[in-house]
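Today's session is about reading a structure prediction critically. Students often jump straight to the picture, but the first step is always the sequence itself: look for stretches that repeat, for charged clusters, for runs of hydrophobic residues. Only then move on to the predicted structure, which in these notes is written as discrete structure tokens rather than atom positions. Here is the chain we will use throughout the hour.
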Amino acid sequence: MKKRIMISALSLLVMPLTPALAESTGQGSYVLAGYRFPAALYAMLQSGLELPVLLDNNPQEKASFLAPNKPDKPDKYVQIGKAMLFASQDRLGLRAVHMTEDGDNSVRLSDAMLKQLEGLRDKPFDDQMHLSVSPGAWFSLDAKQMRLILHVDEQGFGAVIRPREYDVDAPTSRTPSGTVTYDFGGYTTKSSQGMTRNSGYLNFNSTTSLGVDHLLLNGSAYSGNSLSSDRDGRINAALWERDYKGLRYAAGMLDSWNMQSVATVSALTGGEIYGFSFGNAANSRKRDGALSLTPVVVFFPAAGEARIRRDGNLIGIQRFSVGSHELDTSRLPFGIYSVQVEVVSGGRVISNGVYQINKPFSSNVTDGLRWQMWGGAYNRDRLYHYRYRADEYNKNVRVLDSDSEKEMMSLVGVSVGKSQGFVDWSFSSYMLREQAIGELWASSNITQWLSLNMQGMSATDGSWRGNYGGNLRLPKGIGNVWYSHSRLHSGEFLSLYETRGNTWGVSINLPSVGPASGGVISWTEDRDAIYGYKRRRLDYSQGLYAGRYGSVRLRTGIGYNDNTYGSTHYSDRERYVMLDFSIPLGNTLSVGVSHSRDTGTAMNLDATHNFDGDILKSASANVSKSFSGDVEREVAGGATVDFDSPFNRNSLSYQTDNSSGWNATLTSQGSVGWSGTHIGAGKGRESAGLLIDTGLERGEKLTLDIDGTQHQLQGNRNFISLPPYANYRMEILNNADTLDSFDVVDGGRRTVSVYPGNVVYMQPQVKKIVTVFGRLVGQNGQVIANREIKNRFGLAQSGADGRFVIDIDRNHPQLSIATDDGTVCALTLNITSTDGALWLGDVKCDQGSYVWQQSAVKGGESNEKTGS
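Below is the predicted structure for this chain, in token form.
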């Protein structure tokens, strides 16, 4: 800014003359190319004066050598660099031309042009203040305004390509701030034998930040998990982290589950790692690798829930209706591991199986080589072997190798990853005490219709893993086929579950026939020789009707389960037929028939209704009537309610079974954000956000638009959760669902950048606006036309019939009405309505409403009179 002021001031001293050589006038000034330069400025030019380089942003309007200085047009010039202007003898010249790549510029130069500009050294201007760079590029100098303009033809410009990688801007929040997110769930079950069981979990994640530096604390608490070794709870992560400008540094403690946030490390099972990591595997660039590469599909013979456990700990509860459903694995941790899934209806466990989760963290690799070095000490839990013994009935044998509960050992490793051509790959190599372990993950989209993936692990103790899979998209969008194979062998040092299984399936999209819309038929088979299970499912779905009154869809399927554990063998079949009726009122009604080994043949009825309120979101109910089978209760059913509070999201369900048992489940999630001394609660799950004080009263609403996504602001304080490592453009708008109107005077539109733990506090000036309508009349009731009406928001004028409309501040409802005699009528309106518009009726100025001022100088005093 100081330099621009200096250049502008100096440019005023330059006086145009007729062209002449540089000469001294005897008055302390010099003439160059028709311009007079004061001696002080000429001395600066001799030593060099830095000027901005302005690029002509309208290359189609080429400047002529004969007329270089056309009148400026708006946005005609873009600053693209800087150069050193100097004077030598009778010439002005350029040296040290430097171009800058500004991300905000909408133009850029070609590489060849940039090289030519950077190569300019002490090159003079001609008599017309031109300097040629190439046949299609030249500089022109307006010496009067000290403006240096670069003109470039079409060949000198380069292509504007959006960057594939970028650094997030510096954090907006510079004050201490933080977030705490939580979710908990639990159930109470009473069986037909009268036994009651309770189980629950609480997960929390706390992030405290100061700029880009933040502290992470992640923990879990459990209740009623008799299978868990840490029934009272555990700390999953406690570390300092800094991820800025593409480099990530971290130090602290991670458990073996959360180690996947550093690298693909699947051989560490149970225990904690104390150490460090650093590298360019920054979290600011992400890909959607949240779902397991292998779908986890579970069959529900009746409406129920899936209880997901890992190492005996309950880590998730998900609800589904009748049929085959894929679990939402985006909620589960990264890694390659096994989970136990219970399918529960009412108070009875329908099925219980082990499934493989395959979520390698390295699916987040980018085009550049990503590397991360890490190490420290690994405090491993008590060692067990889970090896397959063909000569024993129990194929999953636990062998205790150590009498101690914990064992400390060294750990050091490195991870690299890259997206190269059509192949994404990552590799991790690490030493666990004296054992060396290597893991490789690769994924390839060979063509638009074929993709392959693989994971491999090998250790010097004899442990190894191989996972292979592929997805084939059939031509013309008719469906797809997938296959995956997993094999794991456990050695003497690592503690791993052995697996040997295959999963394959096919899905076909059926064409529409007559009034019936397109359908889908799918087949899946899942088997594992170690765990002794084989699951097969065939599902079919077809739309039968769709019209103004709703739609009808048919769903039917059959499943076959064959399980062998030791000397125990059992198998069962599941069948269901459902008709789903959807009414265009946020309602869904399903009626169908299902059959299972335990419940026999049953009629099922499911109904769902969605609500638009702020608290109650949806409600569903299901009823099942059994017609055969050995059941104690022929009619079973339940209900689920999803509801919000101002601080979190909740779901409550109750279900009975056919054996006089019942089950009740509650889940909830929410977050708390704070910035300095300000604190608020919300419903999001991210580790950054906005804390906004609007000044609104309870029940009043505004809309916050963040990059096109709208969030509701209600009442005074609102906490909006946002994903970290991102830039956001936001604007506060009026809410379309209410009649209220507000004017956001200051702070309603801005750009923010957030990192983990950053909570940006905002307090915009919001004024409640009421649009008032009325008719302006005089003392005798006559209409007053064309009269000026003012307030702090704006200006209005009464029409020929005296009618007017104007916006006013509800908290300061004053109007100023001008009169013919120069006085002003000041009215304070009685605004009792909370609506956005109000009819005032006839508005007139009473005698006590007039205010005028007369000033006269008498004896040095100013007399002011106020009257009516």
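Discussion point for the tutorial: Residues 697-763 form one domain.
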